Amino acid sequence: MAKRISVALIACLATASAYAQVTIDVSKITCKQYLAFAVADPRDIAIWLSGYYHGKSGSTILEPQTLQGNAEKLKAACFLQANSESNVMQVIEKLFGQPK
User: Can you list the domains of the chain with their CATH numbers?
Assistant: First the structure.
């Protein structure tokens, strides 16, 4: 009986650790990591970045077509710099400028 409880406890702990919160410093994501899905799906990162930069500029507007187009531009720019250590946020600021 004790053995079954131990196995159940270990299974519960393993499941709990699988759902542990992960913190990502987006400013450190390189183009290489972005393109390789090493941190998260690039689409998810692009959505987060869009919200971040729109928030900095005080905009609450979401334009799905623009988001998709900007994500494609970022992907293309990162592809050109995939072997460098350029991070995604640096590439965005070169492509689109600093938020106002």
Answer: 24-96 (1.10.890)
